[in-house]
Structures are given as structure tokens and as C-alpha cells.
Amino acid sequence: MQGNIACAEGALAAGCTFFAGYPITPSTEVAEHMAAKLPKRNGCFIQMEDEIASMAAIIGAAWTGVRAMTATSGPGFSLMMENIGYAVMSETPCVLVNVQRGGPSTGQPTMAAQGDMMQVRFGSHGDFSIIALSPSTVQECFELTAEAFNLADRFRCPVFVMADEVIGHMRERITIPDSVQIVRTKPLKEDMLPFTPEEDLIPGFAAFGTGRKIPVTGLTHNEKGYPDSTNPARHDALVRRLVDKVENARNQIADFEIVNEDAEYVFVCYGSPVRTVQEVVQRTKTPGTGYLKLRIVWPFPEDLLHRFPNVKAFIVPELNLGMISREIERHVCVPVISAGKIGGDLHSPDELIAIVERLRSGGAS
Amino acid sequence: MRDDWLRRDRLPHIYCAGCGNGTIINCVLEAVDQIGWNMDDTVFVSGIGCSSRAPGYILTDSLHTTHGRALAFATGVKMANPSLNVVVFTGDGDLSAIGGNHFIHACRRNIDLTVVCMNNYIYGMTGGQGSPTTPIGKTSTTTPYGAEETPFDLAELAVAAGANYVARWTSFHVKRLTQAVLDGMNTPGFSFIEVRCQCPTSYGRRNKYRQPGDFITYLRDNAILKEQWDLSSAPGDELPQDKFLVGEYVRRKRPAMGVPHEA
Fold it and tell me: Which CATH architecture has domain A3-169?
């Protein structure tokens, strides 16, 4: 099965019944698969006039209580930034698949990249936090897309599956379980206002049409949902809560794999570069190497970086000029070697082994 | 009855003295009352601007969204749950400038929405900038020497794009407006009601209609009934300067989306 189709199948397994999207390479197969499957499951597929509208439509649908998603790539992702911010502010659960391609601008429609890893975290205006997952296999396209819906419902925020063209168009054999675990939003309690947070900083959810008469707005608002945009304390409290509800849970929701904890040279990787790292560490058994593979990249689980007692350097192969490597630099005192690569080709094992050998012989990268 | 639909704890509202928006909200709620919709099954959606603050004062579920995008959000609500009654409040800038593409596509799809556009010829909330409906020659903060661009005819645009119901009235024609909103709600598919209304603060002040009463008189005196015009004019006749048509533009049964199935 192709990675993009696995994303769609993961969404369907998770009970997604609404898809709004706009054709764009290399993500279009997700939309095509949903267009074929949803009508037969009493769901709704709608092709919107652009990605701005696609994002708007899934937010509208999510407020009726359904699981809603869209899929896109770089240029479309840029258009979605506006309403991603709205989903954050209005605490709307929704899922976006971004099959990343080379940018900036139209760039390389058919080539892989991971150049949107900072845009997903910081691209919409204002302070906020989101959850971003990154599959490195077709199996993970299925699993992480299904899990994205649970995280979106649990944290009431947009959740992103940050795939790339290689994973999206790769075909692998996968195992589809009979069912996947489903965690829905907490219900809004009878005596609670619609935006009053519970202990975990997340308010309960009530869908439109269930009698709760919820006024949803992108303006800074109070617990009733009423606009209150000129009160500095109100804005401070609201935005800090929106950030904290995600960031405070970063260790609890971290999804990762560690190989060779005692390694001196540790690769930190996510998405398709994981495959090259596994070749270098596990099959070639390059001496002294290990890796941390992140299935959830944002919120960034920095505690994991301290699980390597002998680490002399972190090496970060990513399909950009060094995005997550900068995040890692913030958290550690050892050298962080950015092995950014753009253009569309994956790193070769030899390229990564050469970096390790240079480091071992005392040379800078 | 209409009062029951208002959020009293949101008062006072943000509208300026003499604003036409309150009249239009009143007419829409009267139509909702007449059609007998239930509060719990009705959703108001809006974008950004003075018009778009309306849903926040109404006691139902509501989405006050991003600038120009109300129809795209409303499309998601209606397609995901067609049993909800969805009304969109929008303005001339929200609908036809930043939201112009969403407007024509929502008309084309004929989504079962009732859309009320408060056309006050201006961006009121940001202080009176020219919009796509500012008439040629009129003054705004961004057209200080008079607007030069030809304005949109929003009703004609909706007809051409495929809406099933289209009408235009003004904040003077409250009875006809209420009936038009009701007719729109009763017509499956996309219903568009353009309402020309006064903005004494941001438009009238700079265009010799400082007094709300003068502005409403202008709307009354320059509105020509579409039925009469259609009977009395020859094809190709141009409307006299400053005049505009009011009335029902179209009521038809093109295929629509998001229409609830009869039980």
C-alpha cells in the first residue's frame, strides 16, 4: 500500500467522516482515496475552491462533532496558516496531513523535503503550540494518522501528520488491525462554561446542535466564548493556557524509539531520514552510533536528549537546512551537527557514516 | 419571542448610533421566528467586520470566523450536519473582496445556506475604507478623491454564479426584507439576500449622509423596484446615476447540496 493511501485508511479506521481538500502534488492520493471511500460510509468528501476554504470547512465540520481532516503540501499548507490559527484559538480538533515537498514557493512538487517543520510549529501568527507527528514507514502513515485524531480530540487543537513525498508515494506491505483505539473529546459538563478548562487545561467539548449554544470566535474570549480582546490579563491567561495544555504534556505524549543508549554519536531523526539512520546504526553497525527516532516532533520532547549518557555529538539528518537541529541545540551542551540535505534525495548511508568518522577522528563536520 | 434569541448579557452591542445592522438582525430574527426554527438546531456563521459581529449577540451555536471565510466554514457545518439550519451574516468587504472566491463557489455548489449581506458600501469596522461596492465618485479613507473602480452588483453576481434564491432590499424595506429572508430560508439551496444599509459613521459622514435618517431616505428614494424596471425598460437600458434595483432576482430549483432529507 502507498503511504498516502495508508494515511487515508488510518483516518477511516479512526472514524473520520469528513474530508475537505484541494488537489496538490504529492498529497492528492489522500483526497482521491477519501473521495472514493467516504460516500460509501455515509461520510462527506468535498473538494473546496482552495486550501483556505478546505481548512475552514473541516473546522466547521468538526464543530458538528465529526472527525474531520484535510491533506495538502507546501503551497497549500501556506494558505492554511490563517485558519490553523483559528483552530488553535477556537480549540477545534482537526487533522491535517502535509506530504512535504521542496520549497520555497512551487519549488519541487514531486520531490521530498521536510522544510515545513518550523512552519507547522510557528507559521500562523501569534503564540501557540500544536502537535506534529512524522511517519517514517507506510505502516506509521496508517498508525500515526489514526492516532492524530485521538490527540486532536484529547488536546482540542489541530494535529499534523508531517509526511514527505518519499513516504507518501512509497509502497510497503502493512498490517491493518481490525480496529484502532479511539479517544474522543471529553464531554462538556452540564455545569461548565464552554471554554472553562478542566484540570488538564482542556475544556470539555459539546457539538453544535446539542443545545449548549456555544459562541465560537477567533477573538480573545472569556470562558463563555464572548469576545474580550482588550483585557491584557485575559489574553495572557488564554494564550498561555493554549500553549501549556500542549507543552505540559510533551513528555507524556512523546512517541519515540531509542537504539543504543550508550552511543557516543547519536542521530536524532524523524520521517524518511530515519530509514537511512537505521541502515547506518543497525545494519552497517557503525561503531559508537545510536539514534533517537521521533514519531512526535512537536511538542519537542527534549528530556529524551538526556537519555544518552556517553553522547559526544548529536547528528541531525533532515531534509531541510537544519530546522529541528536548532531545536536540539537549545537543549544540549554537546555539539549538534546539522546534516541538512535538500533537493529531494535522501541521505546515503555513506554520507552519514562519513560524518561519524570525521567526528571520531576529531575533525569538525 | 425575538428577544428570546438575543444574548442579553452581551449588551451593549458595538454598533454605532444610527447603524443599519440592528434593523437587519431584527428582520432576520423575525423571519426565523416566522419559520419556526428551533434555537438548538440553528447555527449563525460570520466572517470579520461589523456585520459579522451579529452572531455573537444571538443565543444559538455560532461561528465568528476569519475574514472572508464564513461561507467556507458554513459549508463544513452544513455538509457535515445537514439537519442544522445555517444562516450566514456577512458584509460587502467580507463577502466580495477577501471572500469573493468562496462566495461564487458557494453559489455554484448551491449549498443550503441563507446568506444575508449587510452592504454598507464601506469597511466600517476599520474606519471607512473603500470596498468593492463603494460607488464611483464616493469618498472613503482610501478613495479620498472619489472611488474610481466599478463596484460589484452582488445580487447579479449571485444569480450568475448559480444561487437558487437571490433578492436585494434595504434597511428601509423592513417588511419586504423580512419576507425575502423567509423566502430564502424556505428555498432549498443557496439563498442570498443583499441588504443595502446605512453606515452614518464611516460612509455617510464623508458622503453627505451624516444623519441616519438622510441615509435611509437616500436608500428609499433611489431604490427602484426590479419588477417595474423589468417592465418599463428596454434591454440594454442603463439605470440612472445613483439608482439601484430592489426585489427578487431569482427563485429556482437547481440541484443543491446539504439539503436535509425529508424524514
Answer: 3-Layer(aba) Sandwich (3.40)
